[in-house]
User: What shape does this take?
Amino acid sequence: QVQLVESGGGVVQPGRSLRLTCAASGFTFSTYDIHWVRQAPGRGLEWVAAISSDGKNVHYADSVKGRFTLSRDNSKNTLYLQMNSLRKEDTAVYYCAKDYYALDTWGQGTLLTVSS
Amino acid sequence: IQMAQSPSTLSASVGDRVTITCRASQSISSWLAWYQQKPGKAPKLLIYKASTLQSGVPSRFSGSGSGTEFTLTINSLQPDDFAAYYCQQYHIYPDTFGQGTKLEIK
Assistant: This one.
């Protein structure tokens, strides 16, 4: 079945880096744009970034631009979100989601906590 | 593009009809989606392109609107419908979500 599985979350100190991974299965990964959406504890959804199916076009929210880098390896059906210069306000559950007429499939999320 | 969603909280009873509204700060044509989220779970797509029901979503859910004004209507509320709801515009990057509506049991 169509599935997205995020991993790589954890506790990290402010200013440090971390890489999240989104592994896809059950669909032709290379033909879909993929997004990241995050949700801080007790808060609403915040769109983070998106990458085109071929990886050539990437878009970011202003809140992460210059600090986060989104990439993909279509040969491995995997998406990577490299997060640098992390801030406390980056603390959230991070979801990856497949874009097919909006975000039709979501992973279960991975929790990132930025704390000293 | 900013999305203003209202109300932030809505109290209703099983069997009621409820409406949630999203207003865009500029025209987004029909590039709007609605999601349902239950505590501790990922969001679930309900409606895309403002009014198209996602496969498998009950027909009591409906969406309408275009341009800057959109509504999500739930007819005959069921116990499973009490959750949070979000709108999302995907007309222009960066995509943006509304602040959310928590639908509570009265």
Observations:
- Chain A touches chain B at residues 35, 37, 44-47, 50, 59-62, 95, 101-104, 106-109 (CB under 8 Å).
- Chain A has a mean pLDDT of 98.
- The two ends of chain A are 39 Å apart (CA to CA).
- Chain A is about 0% helix and 55% strand.
